[in-house]
Amino acid sequence: MKLTYVAIFFAVWAGISWIGIYRHRNFEPGSWRSQIWSDKAGYYGYLPAFFYYGFDPENTPENVNQLAGGGFEAEKVKRSFFFKYTSGVALLQLPFFACTHFYCKITGKPTTGFEPIFYKMINISGAFYFCLSLLLLFLLLRNYFARSAIIAAVFFITAGTNLFYYVIDEAGMSHVYSFFCFAVFWFFLDKYLRKQRFTILLAMFIAMWLAVLIRPTNIVLLTVLLFWNCRSRADIKARLLLFVKPERILVAVSTFLLVFFPQITYWYYRSGELFVYSYGDESFSNALHPRIFEVLLAPLNGLIPYSPLILAAIAGIFIMIRNKVTNGILMLFLFLFILYISAAWHCWYFGCSYGQRSFIEFYAFFCFPLAFLLEKLFSSKMRWLRSGVLALMLIVTFFSLRMSWAFGDCFPGSTWSWYDYRNLTQQAGIPFSGNTTFTYLNDYESDLLYFREMTDSVAFSGTHSAMVPEYIQSTELLTINGNDNLNFEGKEITLSVKYLTDNRFTSSGNAGLSLYWSNQFLGKAAFSENSGNEWQSLSIRYESDLMINLREKIVVTVSNPGPYPVFIDDVAIRVR
379 pLDDT exceeds 60? Predict the structure, then answer.
C-alpha cells in the first residue's frame, strides 16, 4: 500500500510540474508571467543573493532587478539587498535550488540564479510541496472519514478554488508553501496527540514556525494546537497542561530560533536590528471598518466569485456545528479569522491576484468540513439530493478551472465591476446571456485603477476618493482603452460622478469634467461653486445616430483652476 502511495505521489508530481512548465513555455525570463518576477522574486531572491553574490550588491549584474520585475533590489549605495518578504519560501526552495545548481555545474551551464532552468525549478518545487501536502491531508483525514469522501474533498478543494491557479501559474508565490506548512503542522499535531514522540513534536513545531515565518498572521495555528479535537473544558485544560511542560516549551523555543535564525541574521545585516517590519506604511488600516462583503463577494478578487466551491466547505462547517461535531467551532473560528484579517488589511484585494489568495493556506483545514459534507452526501438515501449537490459541485469546479486557466495578470475593473467579471467568464468560454449595457465603474478603492492622487481623507463610498489638486488646467481622470475584445456598441453614453468641493470653492467657470470618445469631444459639465462641503452629482449624457463602439477609447478629463482641491468618487460610464 505504501508503494502505491509513493507511485501515485511521483506520478502526480510529474504531471503537475509538467503542466506548470507547459503553462509558462511562452513566457521568457523577465516577463511578468514568469515565476521569478516581482513578489515571486522577493521570496526567491535570498538564494541567489547568498549563494551567488555573497550578499554583496557589487557582484550582481546591472539588469538583474529589472529582469526580476523589481523584486531583487540590490542597493549598491547602502551595500545591501532589500527583500520585503521573509525567507521562509526560500528555505523550502533551497533543496531544489541546490539540485538545479549542481545540474548546471555538471552540464557546464552558467549559474546566476536567473537562467531559464531556475524558473522551471520554481514550478517543480511548488508542485512537490503541493503534492506532499495532499498526501499528508489524505493520511490525516483517513482517521476521520471514508476514503471516497477524502479523495473527493481533496479534488474539490484543489480544482474548485484558486489553489490550482497558485500551484500552476503562481508557484513562486508563498501560498503553496504556506499550504504545505499547514498540512505538515496539522498532520503531526494529530499524530502527536495519538502518539507522543519527540521527533513528531519537533516536526510539528518546525512546520508551525515556518508557516509563521512565511506569514506572521499564521500564528493563529496556536489555536489549532490548543483546541484541535477538544470536546470540553477538561480537554482544553489537559491540552494546556500537555504543552506548558518545560521540555515542550524548550522544544518550541529552540525550533523558533532555528527556523528564524536566517531571517534574524538578514534583518541584522540589513538594518542592525534583530526584528524588522519591512512593509513600511502597509498595515491593517481597515481594522475598524473591515471590507467583509468585498472580500467575500466583489468581482475584484472576491472569494466566492472565483472559488464558489468554498461555499460547500462553509456549509460543512455549519452542519458540523449543528450536529455538535468536534472541531466545528474551531473551523468556523479559522474561517472568520482569515476573513477578518483579509478584510482589515489596507489592500484587502491583495493587488494583482486571482481571487482571495489570503485564504489558500487555510484550505488545508477546510478540507475537513468539506469531507464531512461529502461523507454525509455519499451516505444519504435521497439520491436526488446527492446527485444534485454533486452535480452542482462539479459544475462550479469546472467553472473555476476554466476561469483560472483564462485569467491574466490583474482584474481589469473596479471593486464592483460585474461587467469586467462577465468579460472574464466569456474569455474562459463560459458565456452568459447578452447584455444591452456596458458599464464601467471606478470607486477608487483599488489602486489597480488609480488616479494619480488617491486619498482616504474623504470618500462618498468606501474609504478612498480621487483628489484633483488646485490649479490643474486639464488632466485625465480615467481612460478606457479601446480594443477589439470589447465588442460592444450603443447609441447613448452617460458619465456620472460624485464630487465634493470646499465651501470656499470658486473658479473661472472652467472647473469640471469633459468626455471624449475616439478623440471626439462629447460634452462637458461644470462643478458648482459653494456646494457647502456636501457630495454633489454631476453627469454628462450624449446620444448619437451613429453607433458608439468600444473599439475606440473613452477618455474623461478633469479641470480645476480654482484655489481648492476637488474630490471625486464613484465614476460610472454606461454605453447602451
Answer: yes
Q: Which residues contact 332 (CB under 8 A, 6 or more apart)?
A: 317, 318, 321
26 grid coordinates = 511562452
At 550-575, the pLDDT tens digits run 788 889 999 988 788 899 999 998 88
Asked if residues 15 and 145 have their Cβ atoms less than 8 Å apart, the reply is: no
Instruction: Judge whether residue 335 has pLDDT over 70.
Output: yes
Quick one: which of 32, 81, 30 has its CA closest to 52?
81
Reduced 3-state DSSP string for 319-347: HHHHCCCCCHHHHHHHHHHHHHHHHHCCC
Q: What is the Cα–Cα distance from 312 to 155, expressed in whole angstroms?
A: 13
569 Cβ neighbours under 8 A, 6+ residues apart: 443, 444, 459, 460, 461, 462, 464, 465, 466, 497, 498, 499, 500, 535
| Burial class of residue 153, CB neighbours in 10 A (0-12, 13-18, 19+) | buried
Which three-class secondary structure state does DSSP give residue 455? strand
What lies within 8 Å, CB to CB, of 313 at 6+ separation is 157, 363, 366, 367, 369, 370, 373
Separation CA 98–CA 5 (nearest Å) = 26
Nearest partner of 35 among 47, 46, 23, judged by Cα: 23
Q: Nearest Cα to 468, choosing from 369, 332, 373, 559?
A: 559
Quote the pTM value: 0.90
Give the C-alpha separation, 356 to 366, whole Å: 15
Q: Residue 476: phi, psi to the nearest 5?
A: -75, 130
Alpha helices in 418-495 (DSSP H): 418-427
* pLDDT, tens digit, 9 for 90 and up, residues 224-257: 999 999 999 999 999 999 999 999 999 999 999 9
Residue type for position 571: V
